[in-house]
Design brief:
The complex is a heterodimer of chains A (218) and B (263). Helices cover 37% and strands 19% of the residues of chain A. Chain A is of the alpha+beta class and 218 residues long. The A-B interface holds A 5, 9, 12-13, 15-20, 22-27, 30, 85-86, 89-90, 93-94, 97, 101, 133, 193-194, 196-198, 201 and B 9-11, 131-132, 135, 138-141, 144, 196, 199-200, 202-204, 207-213, 216-220, 223, 225-227.
Chain lengths: 218, 263
């Protein structure tokens, strides 16, 4: 069906009537020219990062044991903040849109976890309200600056910085990549800013069914 | 400071920004028109054409300058489409209608230029060129590459203006004379273009994923999703473009009706 759809679009395209191939397939092919179709499009780590063990407060005010609650699921972990003007909303929106495009089975095997890097402004309620704009199944976590910094260090991510301006308003510098943990354990791939919906649609089913060791040996 | 709008990748805010290149273009066109009018019998003789040209220049300015130019260059595909309609479809016809009659007459006496115009503005060439430019400037790879730089964004805008001028020329300009391009053929020319624009509309509106990285990865503006933005762009292309073309079709139809009614 998708092939037929692409064929129709490409035919129109070749007839000189339209702008390009279907969806963003063409542009995705450009960004992933060197990858085969069954290979993840994210950026691979040289060595897998073990699934971390930490507990933070979720948006319901309950303790959330990350390892226990996400074990067995493909888990996308992202550190950001709700006042973020660019990277965070684009990542969240693209993941949410892609989850809407993949099959139900894949969707059931993926968890998206957002950890705030701006605990002063991002209350659990604020995080919930913000995440609900994208997908109400996204998990939001809140911890102290020290707790979050320790997790980022363990994950080999740059620690967040908060340069305040003279008005007291501030942006938070933070790692822009989404870490993807396989259902059985480690993260072997990260998705930097610039990852497109087509990349997520391609990779989510692969992430949901891969075991950590399979991903690691590729 | 930027001289032309391009995709910046920074969060949108409603702070006004100057785009000097747009002002220079508008001023140069205004100065050129003043010269044309001066050689064509003065402002009084320009009559309604003066109003048409100034309106066209205003439409061009609005389409290229802040905020439409900035939003179109790096934030919203839907505004990019509004910009295309203003710069590539509405402004050219108003500008061409605004050219004084004596200027067109002078073209008639210029044999080389007339020969070039005869070929380049042939209706088949014009409609082909317009739609080729339409396809080229909406091709995702082209948009994503060119919109990232001021020169690239400028090139797209100028291609639109050029393509629109070519498209409207056979309908508006008396030079070169085309007695064979009758009212029915003019109507067919416009109707053909409404049909051709259906394909890009379908493509943008029904693509399952965002086609332009520029807009997909742009800092969000409001809560419109990337998919909604793209669908809106497709609908605007169809409805906005259709409105312009069907307005022209209606005007031509009544001109034809009046011409047939004359003894």
């Amino acid at each position: 069906m998708v092939r037929a759809y692409r064929l129709v679009c490409r035919s129109l395209f070749l007839a000189g009537l339209v702008g390009s191939g279907c969806g963003s397939a063409d542009s995705v092919r450009e960004s992933t020219q060197d990858k085969t179709d069954d290979e993840l499009r994210g950026t691979r780590f040289a060595s897998p990062i073990p699934r971390p063990e930490f507990s933070l407060i979720d948006t319901e005010g309950r303790e959330f044991d990350f390892y226990a609650r996400t074990d067995g699921y493909a888990t996308l972990l992202f550190f950001g903040y709700t006042n973020c003007p660019d990277v965070c909303p684009v990542h969240m929106a693209n993941i949410a849109a892609a989850l809407g495009r993949v099959g139900w089975r894949t969707r059931q095997r993926v968890k998206v976890v957002f950890v705030t890097t701006d605990p002063d402004r991002d209350t659990p309620e604020r995080i919930r309200e913000w995440l609900d704009r994208f997908d109400s199944s996204f998990i939001g976590l809140h911890g102290t600056t020290a707790e979050v910094a320790a997790i980022q260090t363990e994950l080999k991510l740059a620690r967040s910085v908060m340069p305040h301006d003279t008005t007291g308003d501030y942006d938070v510098g933070h790692a822009a990549q989404v870490l993807a943990f396989s259902p059985s354990g480690p993260a072997t791939v990260a998705y930097p800013f610039g990852t497109r919906q087509a990349d997520w649609v391609h990779d989510l089913p692969l992430l949901a069914k891969t075991r950590g060791d399979e991903v690691a040996v590729q | 400071m930027q001289w032309w709008c391009s995709a910046q990748g920074v969060a949108w805010d409603w702070t006004w920004r100057p785009y000097v290149g747009v002002w220079i273009l508008v001023l140069l066109m205004a100065a050129g028109y003043t010269q044309l009018v001066r050689h064509g019998g003065g402002w009084r003789n320009a009559g309604w054409r003066r109003g048409s040209f100034l309106t066209g220049l205003g439409v061009l300015w609005v389409g290229l300058d802040w905020p439409i130019g900035a939003l179109a260059a790096g934030y919203l595909a839907s505004v990019h489409m509004v910009q295309f309609l203003l710069v590539g479809l509405v402004a050219p016809v108003l500008l061409l209608l605004g050219v004084p009659e004596p200027t067109y007459e002078r073209l008639r006496g210029h044999s080389t230029l007339r020969r070039v115009l005869t070929r380049v503005t042939h209706p088949l060439v014009a409609i082909f060129a317009f739609n080729t430019i339409l396809v080229f400037t909406h091709w995702p790879t082209i948009v994503d590459t060119l919109m990232a730089s001021q020169a690239g964004s400028f090139a797209i805008d100028m291609l639109w203006l050029f393509g629109g001028t070519l498209f409207w020329w056979p309908l508006v300009s008396p030079v070169p004379a085309r007695p064979g391009f009758t009212y029915p053929l003019k109507l067919a020319y416009l109707i053909a273009n409404t049909i051709l624009s259906t394909a890009p509309f379908l493509y943008l509106t029904f693509s399952q994923l965002p086609v332009y990285a520029t807009y997909e990865l742009a800092p969000p503006v409001g809560w419109i999703t990337k998919q909604q933005d793209q669908q809106l762009a497709g609908i605007l292309m169809k409805l906005g473009g259709g409105l312009v073309l069907w307005t022209a079709i209606t005007v031509l139809f009544f001109q034809w009706y009046r011409a047939e009614g004359q003894p």
